[in-house]
Amino acid sequence: MDGKTLARIGAVVFVALAVTATAIDMNRSDAGPETTTKKPPSIVRHDPLDDQLARCSQAGEVGASDPQCLKAWADNRRRFLGTAPAPDPFSTDRPEVR
C-alpha cells in the first residue's frame, strides 16, 4: 500500500469517528445539576398607558388628531426620556396673571 492510500483511509476513519462521537453526544441527555434554582415570579403591574398607546396605534391617522392619543404619546415620551411634565396649556388650574 502506498502512502496516499493509507492517508486517505486514515482520514476516512478519523471523519467517521468524529461523526460518531458527535451523534452520541447529541443523543445523550444530560441530567444536569440535581438542585435547580427557581426564579421567583416577577411582579408585573398593568400599566393603563400601554392600553391607551395600543389603542392609539391601531387608530391610524385618526390617532394623530385625537387629544387623548396626543396626551398618551406625550406621557410616554416623558416616561421614556425622564423629563418633568410640561404644564398643560389647556388646563383651568393656572394661576391668574395680574
Explain what the structure shows.
The model has no long low-confidence stretch (mean pLDDT 81). The chain has 98 residues and is mainly α. The radius of gyration is 33 Å and the shape is elongated. The chain has a domain at 48-81. The chain has helices at 3-27, 48-59, 67-81. It comes from Sphingobium fluviale.
Q: What gyration radius follows from the Cα positions, in whole Å?
A: 33 Å
Roughly what fraction of the amino acids lie in strands?
Answer: under 5%
Mean pLDDT: 81
Quote the distance from N terminus to C terminus: 111 Å
User: Which secondary-structure class do the elements indicate?
Assistant: mainly alpha
Q: Give me the strand/helix succession.
A: HHH
Note the total helix count: 3
Biggest beta sheet summary: none
How much helix, percentage-wise, in residues? 40-55%
Low-confidence stretches: none
Shape: elongated
Number of E-type strands = 0
Protein name: Conjugal transfer protein TrbK
InterPro entries: TrbK (IPR027587)
Pfam family, one: TrbK
Signal peptide: 1-23
What secondary-structure arrangement, pairings included, does this model have?
Elements (H helix, E strand, L loop, with lengths): L2 H25 L20 H12 L7 H15 L17
Helix pairs in contact: 2-3
In short:
Helix content is 53%, strand content 0%. It has 98 residues and is mainly α. Helix 2 packs across helix 3.
